[in-house]
Amino acid sequence: MSYQRIRVVPTTPHIGAEIYDIDLTAPLTAPVVMELKQALAEFQVIFFRDQPINFGQHLALAVQFGDVHHHVGPATESKPVPEFPGVRVLHFDQHSKKVAGEDWHSDQTCAALPPMGSILHITQTAPNGGGATLFGSMYAAYEALSPLMKTYLEGLTATHDGRRVFGPDAPVNSHPIVVRHPQTGRPLIFVNKAMTSHIDGLPRDESEAILGFLYAHCQKPEFHVRFQWRDNSIAFWDNRCTQHKAIWDYYPNVRLGYRIQIKGDKAPAMA
Predict the structure, then answer these.
(1) Which of 14, 107, 224, 255 is catalytic?
(2) Coiled coil: which residue ranges (predicted)?
């Protein structure tokens, strides 16, 4: 695809691109937004450097892509900003017992309508270089399955249980295991270790075996990009076709960031 107003530098063959020649502290023109949407669709997660945005500018970027998604169920690792309830604080330090997102996951797949995407702005990173985030392409993971496994998975659904992560008041919903992206039309794997509890209608041992295989398959590094944060970096990922994992290797140092999620417009649909 051609980009005339931003510079797009792919980071791996399957997923990820860094975006240059853009200032997210200033209002974005419609043609620039169009190219950002194109880049997100093409690369699944896009990265920005040296963007000291405030909460208003963070929200201004998000709403170009849809309405703000508000967190479903309780959460102990992130809290809303009082003046900007759509923005959640992710602050971890020497007092933290755990951090958000240490298991491979897609955000909020327990919701009936999971978020379309997430925009994370990290303002303070650890001085030891820790705290990277891994992102995986579920397009690439699906494409690497054998034809027989693809056939086996057709028509199956799995339960995503938010209580596993967020506690007893979180939602529980079923989604297809293989879904078709509503924008690109590409098929992808839509189960994740953090929230998927079982495959519907299968005996427990069969469900666990298939899910265990899929989790291990999706965690293959060939499908991943590793993003090393610096202060005022931003990652914007398409939650519908990616998974991610936070690396907590910076204890007892501080890492501080703010995340906005964007509402999905269609429930996950079978491929």
Answers:
(1) 107
(2) none
